[in-house]
Amino acid sequence: MSKQVIVTGNLNIRTKLVTASKCVIYTEDNEKFVLIEFTNNQQDPISGISYTLTQKDENGKVIDTSVVELFCGTAKSGESFGKRNPVKLRNDCASIEITHIKQLSKNKKKSQAQVIDSSNKFISYAQTSFLTIMVATALILLLFLPMYQQFIIWGGDVTATEGSFTYEQYSVSHSKLVRVDPQFDDDISLNTVNGQQGNANMVAAGAISGCNRVGRVNLYKMKNIEAGAIENCSRLQTIDIESKKIESRAIRNCPSLTDLYLEVKTIPESVAANCPYILTLYLYNVTTIEDYAFYDCTNISTVRIYGKKPKIKSTSFKDRGNISFFFEDSSINSDSLLG
Predict the structure, then answer these.
(1) 14 and 137: one domain?
(2) What is the mean pLDDT of residues 199-207?
(3) 121-141 residue pLDDT tens
(4) What is the pLDDT of residue 205?
(5) Where is the domain boundary, 99, 119, 144?
(6) Among 70, 156, 254, 331, which is most exposed with the fewest C-beta within 10 angstroms?
(7) In this structure, which long-range contacts are made by residues 289-292, counting pairs with CB atoms below 8 Å and at least 24 apart in sequence?
(8) β-pair partners for 261
(9) Full residue range of the structural domain in which residue 235 is found
């Protein structure tokens, strides 16, 4: 039998009945399985649980929904169960959701996990003795096999660490950068063609914080940059962001920042707070610059605009008269732009 671990991680699913704490996804003989460890949150023992397992493909389309019955004998309060009971997944499954966790009747005493379809027709189960051997082998594989760069969606998040970068993984193509080690001493680049450090498409508040050895941050093909995502980086000189959305105060307290590249439709209020030494802005396909967007950036001398004419509010900049505007589209001039 050939086993390969795809991912291991900590879950964040908690109900009054149980907590789903850990999981292991692996393949064996070209089939995919999931092991989930649950903990009894009740004062009384439980004999088993059931939950709805929804499987989705890479496009987020539901490809299978089933009810899983997990028998644990008698799990006392605080006792863990389920880590010896794998559940088979479809091979084309790219993400799963766990919902509707319920307690099974006390008269069910089997020590196994079984999957039942909507007609309650038995599909598959594995006995405990076989599972003991399989789980022991999987744990050994965890020590020696490199993890694949693939992550599964749960009712909660899977946290994964790759070198100096920590992510919350929601699916194969959907993840959030939540932390960069402050000791990281190279440029940060996400979703670049070359030199890619991660596949995150969101950046959480405080993710790039106190990284005083970083000189440049490149964030491409993002969905959102949260407030405080980049902050307190004393040597950061250049930021290049391409995102569907960027929140107010996404960049703050970066005193060495001189060059800011933004490709986003709307630039919100105080997008770069307490960054007084920005000299040059490069704006790509921007439609609106909101009031006070760069009001604190008092040393901006040059703004280069690429794309159609954006709407600039009267207080987007503190002193527009001292700023030189340059346009890729020759039909736009500073008079028409600034009104």
Answers:
(1) yes
(2) 86
(3) 333 343 444 455 555 555 544
(4) 93
(5) 144
(6) 331
(7) 289/313, 289/316, 290/266, 290/316, 291/315, 291/316, 292/316
(8) 240, 282
(9) 158-338
